[in-house]
Structures are given as C-alpha cells and as structure tokens.
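Section: protein folds

Sequence with per-residue tokens
===
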Amino acid sequence: MDKLRVSIVGAGLMGYWHAHTAHCLGARLVGTADIDPQLATRLARRYPGAQAFTDMESMLSATSPDLVHICTAPESHGILASQAIRNGAHVLVEKPLALSLDKTRSLLDEAVVAKVSVCPVHQFVFQHGVEKAHSLLPSLGKIMSIRSTIFSAGATDKTNDGLKRVVADILPHPLSLLHCFVPKARPETFNWQTVTTQPGELSVTTAVDDIVFSILISMQSRPTRCEFDIYCSGGSLHLNLFQGYVVVQKGASSRRHKITHPFSSAINTSLAATVNLMRRSLQREWAYPGLKELINRFYRATNKENGMPITANQILFVAAAQDELIKIAIPSLYS
C-alpha cells in the first residue's frame, strides 16, 4: 500500500487514537488541526514532519492530505467533511457522519462527484468478537430478539442538552450492529416505542420484521456497560463491545443445564475475555477494539486494494434509523 498522507482534525482523545492508529498502519501524518492550538501542537509533535493548525482550511491548503480523519464534535462533522471532499481528500468521520439523513445523502453525493471516499467510524462492526459472532450465528437457529445495552460515564458533567447529545451520538453503534446482523432490515418499517424518564436515559423498542430489537442507554446506571445480545431459538450470543469478545450459550432446558449454567457461563466468559486480551496485546490494539481494523480496511479501499468497509447503503440505513429515532425520542435536540 502506498504511504498515505493523512491529517487529523480534532486533537482530543479520539484524534490521539486515530493518529496513533494511522501511524501504526504506515500512514504519514502531515497535519493536525484543532481550535485549541496547544492540543494541535501537542499531537503534531508526536509525529516528525506533522504541522499544527487552528483551522482546517489552513491545514488543507498547507499539507494537501490524501485523507482526513475528522474527530470533532458531531455538529461539525458534516461541514468539515464537505470541506475536505471539496479539497479532493478521502474522509474518515467519527460518528455520526452528519446530523440528518438529508445531510448524509448530500455528503455521499458530493463524494461521488469529487471521486473520493467517505466512511463513518462504526468500529464495533469490525471487532473480532462481532466477526466471530457471524460465524456462530447460523448454528443457533432463528433470531428472536436483539438487545443493546449501553451505560456510559461520558456525560457526568453535561447539561440536559448535553446529555441528549451524548445519547444521540451513541445511537449509530447499535444501529450499525443491527444492520450487520439483520442486513435486510428496513428503517421505514420501524415503529419505535420509546421511554425517556430524564435527559440521558432512553429505552426504545421496535419490531424488525419478526425480531424484537431494543436499545437501553443510560448515563447514570453503573457499572458502565456496552453490550449487544442476540437471542436465538437455539442459544444466544453475548457481545462485550468494550473489550471486543463474544460468548456463546447453547440453548438447553434440562434441570442439569439450569444448575450448571451460572458456572459454565462464568467459565466461558473468563476464557473468552482472557483469550481476547492476549489477542489484543499481540496485535497492539490498546483501545477502541475494531477501530484499527476499520481504518486499515478504509485505507486499503482508498488505494483500490479492497471494497469499502462500510457501503453507502449501510451508511444510509444508520442515518435513516437514527433520524427517525431522534425525531421521536429526542425531538428538541436539533430544533
């Protein structure tokens, strides 16, 4: 793969890990941009030859990157992605790609005209555990229900509006995983039933054909969790998305199974977690499981070595489902 010239917009925590991953994959970091000059400079100094800027326009003009990573606040994603596209750069954007379905479509159209690629960061889909779950799923029979549970500590100092924005920012994760496991799902058929007790707390459920799909998001429940459970007629899959592993539980209803289940479940979980930690250590995947694999596949796609890791149809599915869900559950968010 030719060495890509990449730039990072947003030099906070996610910008740090995007830059680290880009470097590990052999890309050359040529620029960083952040409204906080200290953050931009601190990140740039980690990579010889990288320049620091306080605005994206100056960075694009001075460095002419092949590819731009956008790691800023969600409300700025669409504008910055469009700016990068107009400058002929491929764009990898932290979720969501844009704040609405219409704006998402517009970005994809701009990218087609400019002959560049755009990809949102739905990294959970590329975790080792998710890919393993795909191989296990056919042996478990029919999918009956799917549940996503996310308890986050990332909004403890937020206002009510801030809590709502964090919840909205989380939604692409379970929605992208839903499409991953139920690719024939159609957002226009969803009939969301929502419960919101206070800002930062959201429970939603819908039927996806004959599958019950539910999302529970909480900013106050503890301990923190990020899990995706698939319940089938012949067993279930438990995905730990913080760590990136999956545990399979076969369906049995005998008395013996009921007695031994707590112990076998604990053993299987411990084994899966241990093997996963060893694998991540060997692969130097220190944080955000799935991110490195997604970035690698996107880089290779821009170099015509493989197809896009996330297709336009997948992007539009998530945007459409999120658009409708926010209108119903958090109607005041972007009004």
About this structure: The mean pLDDT is 95. The longest strand covers residues 143-151.
